[in-house]
Amino acid sequence: MTDEQSDELVKQFEGIIAEQGGELLKTDKWGRKKLAYEIQKYSEGYYTLFEMNAGPTLIAELERRFRNHDSVIKYLSIRMDEAEKAAGRTKQRIEREAKRKAQAGIKERSAEEVMG
User: Which region ranges are annotated with the description Disordered (predicted)?
Assistant: First the structure.
């Protein structure tokens, strides 16, 4: 499979998520990686993470399509609890605040150097 074919497959699954009423939060393409162990005589594969809000019907449909698609050799569906989602949002908020403070510190130092 080429990079272009992988991108096309990802777009196809993103389309399925959208048309079935799911909310795609993030698509993280990790690219071509060595598999931890050989699967169906493949030693490398393209890894992609879909993070979404979806009901059980959509998840079942995605899993059915993953199973039936020749290019998908392995998949894993994981349900995130509300606490895990909140923890992720809290971590992102802390990182944004730290970045904002760091940028403010740089601006303060620049102003002091100009006045100084």
Answer: 86-116
Domain range enclosing 31: 1-79
Q: What is the pLDDT of residues 37-75, one digit of tens each?
A: 888 888 888 888 888 888 889 999 999 999 998 888 888
3-state secondary structure the chain: CCHHHHHHHHHHHHHHHHHCCCEEEEEEEEEEEEEEEEECCEEEEEEEEEEEECCHHHHHHHHHHHHHCCCCCCCCCCCCCHHHHHHHHHHHHHHHHHHHHHHHHHHHHHHHHHHC
CB 44 within 8 A of CB 32: yes
Task: Tell me the sheet residues that pair with 29.
Answer: 48
Describe the crossing of helices 3-19 and 56-68 by its angle, rounded to 10 degrees.
150
